[in-house]
Write a structure and sequence with these properties.
There is one protein chain. This protein is of the alpha/beta class and 262 residues long. It has 15 helices and eight strands. Helix 4 packs across helix 6, helix 5 packs antiparallel against helix 6 and helix 11 packs across helix 12. It starts with a strand and ends in a 6-residue tail after the last helix. InterPro entries: Cys_rich_dom (IPR004017). This is (Fe-S)-binding protein. One of its GO terms (molecular function) is oxidoreductase activity. It holds the Pfam family CCG.
């Protein structure tokens, strides 16, 4: 199986350890994963803001970069959702039949990380070890657009040493929403404050999610509140082992997530 990592813009620019964790995890599970260097943005920021025509060359770059792979894995429900659902809208609007045909090839092969692990590889126990109290936030696109359901929780429950606690009002949006946080800052901050309060109520040491954009937003608030809760991407916990835990206790909140517009 030829598998490619679509690392996402925010991870490439701000959270490279997440992409590295995906590679370590997949290789540990026997997957030979490639990183196509021609990849850029998935186009979601443009589509979400209404610039569908401007997204055409970005979608074209995506399908060209990932052509020929059996699976495209991304540590982001947002970007997986864009590739699976928005790319077809952009291609159809453009009237480019070749682009539409290419999208029809790449879209169904694009998986959010937990989907790939559970549905394609058929594993829930990935051999991880993470002896900390953790709570999980299901991000909006993974929950509503992709329907990942309980896959992330099943993966976390199989992690040795972990104490997984439920997050109150877990399915409520954190308020980030990409450009929403900039265009509707007051509403975004209020939503984020609710989410941060619920995280603190769990007594968790670590907040985990499948999208670093959401973790950046919530983590920024937790950092400003000096809550003592660090945020980590799902991939980083699943890639953790007893050996890695013995060498590092993990980054502090302020080092892991800064949080814009909060």
């Amino acid at each position: 199986m030829r598998v490619a990592l679509q690392v996402t813009c925010v991870n490439d620019a701000m959270f490279p350890d997440t992409g590295k964790a995906v590679v370590r995890l997949l290789r540990r599970l026997g997957v030979d994963v490639d990183f196509p260097r021609a990849q850029t943005c998935c186009g979601q920021p443009m589509v979400n803001t209404g610039y569908l025509d401007e997204a055409v060359p970005v979608v074209r770059t995506f399908v060209d970069a990932f052509a020929g792979y059996d699976a495209i894995v991304t540590p982001s429900g947002s970007c997986a959702g864009s590739a699976r659902h928005q790319h077809a809208i952009v291609a159809e609007r453009s009237g480019d039949r070749a682009l539409a045909a290419a999208v029809a090839e790449t879209a169904p092969k694009t998986y959010e990380l937990s989907e790939f692990l559970v549905d394609v590889l058929g594993v829930t126990d990935v051999g991880a070890y993470f002896p900390h109290r953790v709570t999980y936030h299901p991000t909006c696109h993974s929950l509503r657009m992709l329907g990942v359901g309980e896959r992330p929780q099943r993966l976390l429950e199989a992690v040795r040493g972990i104490t997984l606690v439920d997050l109150p009002e877990a399915t409520e949006c954190c308020g980030f929403g990409g450009t929403f946080a900039l265009k509707n800052a007051d509403t975004s901050v209020a939503m984020g404050a609710d989410k941060a309060r619920h995280v603190r109520d769990t007594g968790a040491e670590v907040l985990v999610a499948g999208d670093n954009s959401c973790l950046m937003h919530i983590g920024g608030m937790l950092s400003r509140q000096r809550a003592g809760v660090r945020v980590m991407h799902l991939a980083e916990i699943l890639a953790s082992t007893a050996e890695s835990e013995s060498h590092s206790s993990g980054p502090a909140v302020g080092e892991r997530a800064g949080g814009p517009a909060t």
